[in-house]
Write a structure and sequence with these properties.
Layout lengths: L4 E4 L9 H16 L3 E6 L9 H13 L9 E2 L4 H13 L3 E4 L3 H13 L25 E4 L6 E6 L3 E6 L7 E3 L7 H11 L4 E5 L3 H13 L6 E5 L2 E2 L15 H6 L4 H10 L12 H7 L10 E2 L2 H14 L2 H15 L8 H11 L6 H12 L7 H4 L4 H15 L6 H14 L4 H13 L7 H8 L1 H7 L7
Parallel strand pairs: 1-2, 2-3, 9-10, 11-12
Antiparallel strand pairs: 4-5, 5-8, 6-7
Helix pairs in contact: 1-9, 3-5, 5-6, 8-10, 11-13, 12-13, 15-16, 15-17, 16-17
Length: 466
């Protein structure tokens, strides 16, 4: 029995895309379910666009969502000599040839294909020509000699049997005229050398798979098994791209989506197990299989992500939730001081009420986290002369209050409502603004109790509102 080995192979040319994260997750879960290994290959052969900062971000993002690779990262650029060596082997065995077509000739072929509204396929001009006839002023590329006759069947573990006519696969370039290998050659050699048993990737790679299978067969290597996952689309049904909003992990962590919630959402995006919606990490590994992956594209739905995140906010341990909030604030907001910990933890039960993100909790808790109350011009307009009297009387009543709870506060508020012939909003809104700087946020009694008598007195004595 062979040991399952999968890989995720991003290019470090930008932030990690949400579609890539799901592909990595499916590979990782499949390996873990089969007690195999999951590997990370950094495909950094595009030297102009590849950057170390992107590589670091990719590894950090995967770790954030709970995916850790086995062993060291496999760096593709360090293996280029191996790729070139295989190209030369294919040349010697007659499975590849040198193509001396000039750039002008290739462009002319492409132009004719466009005019006929046909997909461009290289015309195989140099496939059977002798090198004796080669021009001296053209540096050749090396092309793989693809099969011309018959068809090839890909036994896809998600899509089922996929058949293609061999003559539709062009004689693709494996070495450019500057001597550098192309994607299809490098990926095939790497997958073979890494002993990959399963290649699980987006179904936009299907044509690449047919090309790579031919290299495997020409080299007499054992074929891995292939699984092509349908792509993620936008809610409008278009292919999701890096230019779309909320397409990278950073986009989600910035608004306070928690890693477990996003991982659970991505797991269910195009995969199902019975009618189960919520999966712990252990359950994800236990139940994941390729049979549960659907054949149609999935739509990225932000409302579903927020709903999943809200579920996790409501149901995880509050100590754990507090730790998530601290980490989130350290990166994106104001750092939470240690002395505020107890006050926030005690208040989480109402601070998380209706919160869909950690940012919502931060906004609800800002009046505790920040030492100074920041007043907006619109909010200050609510503090008129009548409001100032209500605030002053409320402060005086609070100071002499013995029982600091809702039962003790309600008679004070009700008394002010009666005295000033108003309603709860008429009393509560100016007090809320005075204490938090905003008319929005948690309930008045929750705010007052969470701040405590000493802080209430300090805030209600501010010169701005008195």
């Amino acid at each position: 029995m062979f040991k399952v080995a999968t890989r995720f192979a991003p290019s470090p040319t930008g932030a990690l895309h949400i579609g890539g994260v799901r592909t990595a997750l499916f590979n990782w879960l499949y390996s873990k379910n089969n007690k195999g290994t999951f590997h990370l290959r950094i495909e950094d052969t595009d030297k102009q666009r590849s950057k170390d900062e992107h590589k670091i971000q990719i590894i950090k993002s995967l770790k954030w969502i709970g995916i850790e690779h086995d062993g060291e990262e496999y760096i593709q650029s360090t293996k280029i000599n191996d790729h070139i060596s295989i190209a030369n082997e294919l040349l010697k065995s007659g499975n590849a040839y040198k193509c001396y077509c000039s750039n002008e000739e290739i462009e002319d072929q492409k132009k004719r294909a466009r005019q006929k509204k046909l997909p461009y396929i290289y015309n195989r001009k140099w496939r059977d020509l002798s090198e004796k006839d080669a021009p001296t002023d053209v540096k050749p590329v090396i092309r793989f000699k693809s099969k011309i006759e018959g068809s090839t069947i890909l036994k896809d573990l998600v899509q089922g049997d996929v058949e293609i006519d061999n003559n539709t696969i062009e004689d693709f370039i494996i070495l450019r005229n500057d001597g550098t290998p192309t994607y299809n050659l490098s990926a095939t050699v790497d997958d073979h050398q890494m002993n990959m048993t399963h290649i699980i990737r987006g179904d936009d790679h299907k044509i690449n798979t047919f090309k790579q299978m031919q290299i495997y067969l020409a080299m007499k290597w054992e074929l891995p098994q292939f699984a092509h996952i349908p792509l993620i689309h936008t809610i409008k049904g278009k292919k999701l791209s890096k230019r779309d909003n909320a397409s990278t992990l950073d986009d989600y962590s910035k608004i306070g989506i928690m890693p477990d919630a996003l991982r659970n959402y991505l797991l269910r995006l195009g995969w199902s197990y019975e009618d189960k919606e919520i999966f712990t990490l252990e359950e994800s590994i236990k139940h994941f299989n390729l049979e549960g992956i659907g054949k149609s594209p999935s739509k990225l739905d932000m409302s579903r992500i927020l709903s999943m995140n809200e579920y996790y906010i409501k149901n995880i341990d509050e100590n754990e939730l507090y730790n998530h909030l601290v980490q989130y604030c350290e990166i994106y907001k104001d750092k939470i001081k240690t002395e505020k910990e107890e006050k926030i933890k005690k208040s989480l039960s109402f601070l998380k009420n209706k919160a869909k993100t950690l940012e919502d909790i931060f906004n609800n808790a800002k009046y505790i986290i920040l030492d100074e109350v920041n007043f907006g011009d619109d909010d200050l307009k609510l503090i008129d002369e009548n409001a100032k009297k209500i605030i002053a009387e409320f402060k005086n009543e609070i100071i002499s209050l013995n029982t600091f709870n809702k039962e003790g506060l309600e008679p004070i508020v009700n008394g002010l409502i009666k005295k000033y012939d108003t309603n709860f909003k008429g009393v509560g809104q100016p007090i809320r603004v005075a204490l938090t700087g905003s008319k929005f946020g948690p309930g008045l009694y929750d705010i007052v109790i969470s701040l405590g008598k000493k802080e209430i007195e300090k805030r209600l004595s501010s010169k701005i509102i008195t």
